[in-house]
Amino acid sequence: MVSPVQFPTLKAGSGWSSVTPELAPVGSPSAPGYDARAIARWNVVPFQDVDEPMTVGVVAFHTNGIERVEFSLEGGPWIPVTEKHYNTRTQTWEYAATFDPSEVDDGLAELRARVIPRIGTPRILQGPVRRTESRDGVWSMFLNSNAGGTLIRTARYVSPTGSDSNDGQTPQTPVRTMAMAARQIHLAQGGLADGGVIYLMEGDHTMGPGRLDEHGNFIGLAETSTRWLNVTRAPGTDPDQVRITRGASGGIRTSLVRVHDLTVRQYEAGAIFVTSANDHETHHLWLDNLDMTGPGRAQANGQRWTGSRFDVVFATNIEIRDAMNGFRGENAMFQRNVHLEDIGASAFHSGSFIVNCSVTNLTSQGNQWGWHPHVWLLYTPSNILDNHIIYGLKAEEIYHPIFMVRNVRGLTNSAVVNLYAVSKIDNSSSTFATREVDHLLLWHNTVLDQAFLFREDEHASHAEGYLAHEMDYRNVSLMGNLFSAFGRPSAMDISGIRAHHNHFIREGTNSQEIGEYATRGDPGLTMMSTGTPDSPDQPAFSRTWLTPTGNSVLLGRTDRKRIPAGLNGRESGSSSAIGAVQP
């Protein structure tokens, strides 16, 4: 059990009058990592209603370490936070402060953060919530204060046996479609469905079609602006009996939709959660606390959960099983506490912020479509991707590559930290096959029974291909990793890679060695169970881990300030053990 922490409370200003200016780099221009920008994202879903004080956090890293993260509410004083602490709300070690909604009037409030490394280039989290080409997740944190209780929350009920001629105001008079419920909320609230609640009665439901009633008649849209329109189970219903089973054209078709606390069952390939947003519209989707089951991991070619027209998909506290994919696509930009089981293709395809997630049993066995499964895959030949974070990912019973970064034009300012992965086949490998990498952190990862490789492009004859001597890797840090094996092309320039205190299990010609204080051979691991399965302050991982014990060469090797705890929930001692698991 982690001891509670008193986070500083933000004090509000009079509002933001302009863009917060960029900060100058810190330290000597000749220092390694001086030109590397801080890696940082909000670990909060925006546009929430906040009735009581809430802890808001930022996940942040830098090759030289983070000096502080500064938070400001509506232009108020910048409040510095100098250490990571455990945030029980997100189950994450992060830099955090408290947003007290009574500090501001009811309505939308804007928080910004400045992330300042010990040596290096700061990053400012500000601006609108949107997906950029680099998928960097850089925006302000917008939250809706409701300390005064003045925000409107109109409810309507939907039943598969209801009628769109009903008023939807009670469980006895439900409408038939979510589109009608959303439109009624929109009209009842004076032309805006912000904060409304669509209560689903027991039975199977369809998301959509947008703008149409049960007879296909046009009824108009439900507009949202700064608050989520909620779709959830009606009070007193059994969550297993309230099911969304298919999507129809356009979905609910509004800017902000949150679906939470119910069951999703998919029986066919098409996406369930869709929108028909036009190019000038920005639609976001938040999926929260859902139990989701697909049609089988090898049964539906092209299966996916969300449509491509959503700008950003936020996924929190979700279990997915028996499906071809987890959340797949460039818009799957925020995944926290998402746990997958029996997946046939992509677990976290194109994910750019993955925190405290897991996948168990990833295999394409039985499919007839020639899928190439991966736990984490980045494949974007035309874009330079920035500010990607994996922070806590457990992968077990994996029959394919753990991760592959391939044919990406470039990857900058990104981190993979506390990844624990155990492969079921020894002849596979995880690879970074990318021409340009600038500021990549690989810290305290455990990758067993699979090699980790920096590799030249296997399609070097193509126009976008490259050979080993053309690989440009700068500000790369490998620290505290436990790899079964490591490899790189002999012609690759590694002068831009700093590596220390890594352990490589295989010896001889089957594995190379890199960096200072490297060790080899048997790491001294023991299968152990840690944590309490029902503990509310720990992520819902399976509880068994290969753990360094006794006289393991992995123990006491790195600075605790970089990695204060392992993925298994155990805090580091005065120094941290190599790998993702702390004893």
Structural overview:
The chain is mainly β. Helices cover 2% and strands 40% of the residues. It has one helix at 178-188, and strands spanning 39-42, 49-50, 54-61, 66-73, 79-81, 85-87, 92-99, 107-117, 123-125, 141-145, 155-158, 197-200, 203-207, 229-233, 242-247, 256-265, 284-293, 312-325, 334-349, 353-362, 374-378, 384-386, 389-398, 403-406, 410-423, 429-433, 436-443, 446-454, 472-479, 482-487, 497-500, 503-504, 519-520, 525-529, 544-548, 558-559, 575-576. Strands 19-20-23-25-28-26-24-21 form an eight-stranded parallel β-barrel. Strands 2, 4, 5, 8, 9 and 10 form a six-stranded mixed sheet that branches. The protein starts with 38 loop residues before the first strand and ends in a 7-residue tail after the last strand.
Count of helix runs? 1
Structural class: mainly beta
Mean pLDDT: 92
Outline the low-pLDDT stretches.
Answer: none
Radius of gyration: 24 Å
Q: Strand order, main sheet: write it out.
A: 19-20-23-25-28-26-24-21
Structure described in brief:
With 583 residues, this protein is an all-beta fold. Helix content is 2%, strand content 40%. The chain is globular, with a radius of gyration of 24 Å.
What attributes characterize this protein structure?
583 residues; mainly beta; Immunoglobulin-like; 8-stranded parallel barrel; 6-stranded mixed sheet; 2% helix; globular
